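Quick entry, no commentary yet.
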Amino acid sequence: MDLEVLVRDGLVRALDSDVDPAALDSDLDLADDYGLTSLNKVIFLMSVCDDSQVSLAEFTESDVAQMRTVRDVVTALSKFAPPEFAGSG
């Protein structure tokens, strides 16, 4: 499974949007450009952590604050993702 696809799918679910996940720009800001609230960001991150088998406990508050784009989330998750996600991100 591709980690970026998983994150894009998770973001679309969090946004409750009909947007094609492939159409999302990996470098747009989750809050400013996609309107993700702080609470929805936490819910989104919990979901993608579950989906990628990465414990949210791996990340500090500062790490979470620095996850501002899809690319940031993929990069952060890729550090802890199991082998089936190797090469993604």
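second:
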Amino acid sequence: MKGKKAGIKSKRRCIGVRTSPIHGRGVFALRPIPKGTRIIEYKGKLITDKEADRRFGPLQENSSHTMLFSVDGGLVIDATRGGNSARWINHSCAPNCEIEEEDHRVFIEARRDIKPGEELAYDYNLPTGERHPKKAKRDHACLCGARPCRGTMLGEEEEED
């Protein structure tokens, strides 16, 4: 058994990371992914909101790039430590994936059938806990290019009128 350990089944990868037309790196389907498929878990070190602010607050102040995922209970998954390919999934206002949270774990699932070569994306819906001034919208501009693009990765429900 060349390249495999005895007793371990080989699972064909369904995703791969490469350069994205949306932003930096992206995650792409390598084979068809049916609607409802749990594709990957967003992995990283689980830390408190307070620890995330301590570690990244000054760095994130002037950057829209982050590998932190807030989960219930005032916790954050820090994908800069122990993260996997899921950290490269980009935002889209017309996403083909959605997030499912279970017990402080985050899973990315297919919202619809995804074709090989298609980039995976979910709506970041970034929370700020306040209304969004124009500067915040510019700092978190959306580059998805989708027809229904709202122009920002910030949460839809928090936008100013």
